[in-house]
Structures are given as structure tokens and as C-alpha cells.
Amino acid sequence: MTAEDIQTHDQPTPLGCNPADLAWVESTVKQAGTSFAAGMRILPPMRRYGMYAIYAFCRVVDDIADGSDPLPQRKAELEEWHARIARLYEGEAQDPLERVLMAAIRFFSLRQADFDAVIDGMIMDAENAIVAPDEKTLDLYCDRVASAVGRLSVYVFGDSSDNAQKVAYHLGRALQITNILRDIAEDAARGRLYLPADLLNRFHVPLNPIQALSAPGLEDVARILAARAQDHFRKAFATMKLCTPKAMLPARIMGASYESILVALCKRGWAQEVLLARPKTSALSKAYALASSYIP
What are the alphabetically sorted keywords of the record (predicted)? Predict the structure, then answer.
């Protein structure tokens, strides 16, 4: 029996949750205006609200990490989320987000370690502004804030196979590297520089976030990372072919949307005068990326 069958025959609402709680997580997604919304909307209600709950959780902890409260307070709030997640696995939920998350955890057998990884990624951001990390630290950060979300998502999509986990690994890294390349100037304004130190040093780019923006070598660094992201996209889309096709459709849509951003970034470049210009994507470019994701 599928999750959709459970909802139709045994549950009056998706995940058996209070409509007001479901409305809360849905409104959080809508207010965020996330580019992932299209991938979530195609899901049947049970899975859609499971994804809404995961996204709302990510949004809440990300807002804490990026907030203006003193560091000790932000870190304490994030550490408290470790305790809150642990309580969900013990059957205790206190607010709309926790109640829908607990239902999703039960219905889709979501793993506590993946929620904890997301929180730990946010603590990395809050504890110290990440500036020119080494490759190992950057990869760990990408795993925690992106691939861990992918591991949760594929369970909700309906595929918990090893290949689905590989999709989460590669797609998460592709999406996060694309985010990093898109937000270099914004991150610099917040004292952050997620580009790896070895590449910066190789192309004589200062490790200072603001100074890096005007360095001629920044273009070379960005293009190497863009190639790395594209390789992760290719591996993710190739591995999707080994997974349940229906379960992977939301991941394909989300991946294609972000791949079109990466293509637009490569066309725009990373010269200082264009760094603040958001890359322009179109419905046609996203459709092309989605179609291309099926091609071997």
C-alpha cells in the first residue's frame, strides 16, 4: 500500500495532521518563494506536505543561523533544535512544524541523523563566518546543508534505495555549489567566502571576502567550481535513471531549475562589474535543462 493509499482510505487529511498545522508549513514554503516549489507541487498530498515540513524546518534553522542575534544565542537555539528533533523521535511535538515533521518522520521513516546533519551545517555558518575553507570542510558543509536535505527528500519522494542516496549526494553538492557561485557578492557583504582556499591561492585571489571580488583570478576559480557542479549534475541525472522514475521526477525538476541557473551564471561570468547581477533564467531554459536530464 502506498502513502497515497494510506491518505485516501485511512487518513482524513495528509499525514493525518490538523489542517491548521498543514497550512502553517505550506505558508512557510509559499512565503519563501523557493525555486523548489515547482518540484514539491507535483507531489501527491501526503508527500507534498512531507516536503513542506522538511523545507519549513530548513527555513527555520537557516533563519536562526543567519539572524542578527548574538552568536551564543543563535548557537543555543540551534543546539536546542537537536533536542527538539530527538523529542520528535520519542513522540513529543509542541507546535505546528514539529507535529507535521513528526508525522512525516513516521510515514516516511526519515532518519534522525539527516536532520542533525542539517542543524550541524547551520551551526558551522553561525559559529564562525566561513572564509576560504579547505576542500574537506567545504565538502562537509555541502553535505550537511544540501545533501542531507536530499537524503530526507528522496525518502519522501518514494525511493530509499542506495542509488537514491547517491542522487542526494551528487544533486545536493551540485545545488550548493551553484548557490555559492550565485551568491559570492552577497556572502562577501556578510563576511563569508565559501570558495576553497587552495583554488583561491592557485589563482592569487585574496582570502579576504571583499578583496576577492575584484581579483582577476576569481573568474578562473568560479569556472573550475562551475565545472565541478556540472559534473555533479551529470552524475545525479545519470543515477536517477537507476531509480524509480516517478519518485525521481521532483528531483529532476529541482535539479533542472538549478542547472539552468548554473548555465546562466557561466554565460554572465564573475567579473566584478556583474557579480551583483542575478543570472536570468527562463521557463524555456528550465524546460530544456529538464529534457536534457533524460539524455545519457
Answer: Transferase
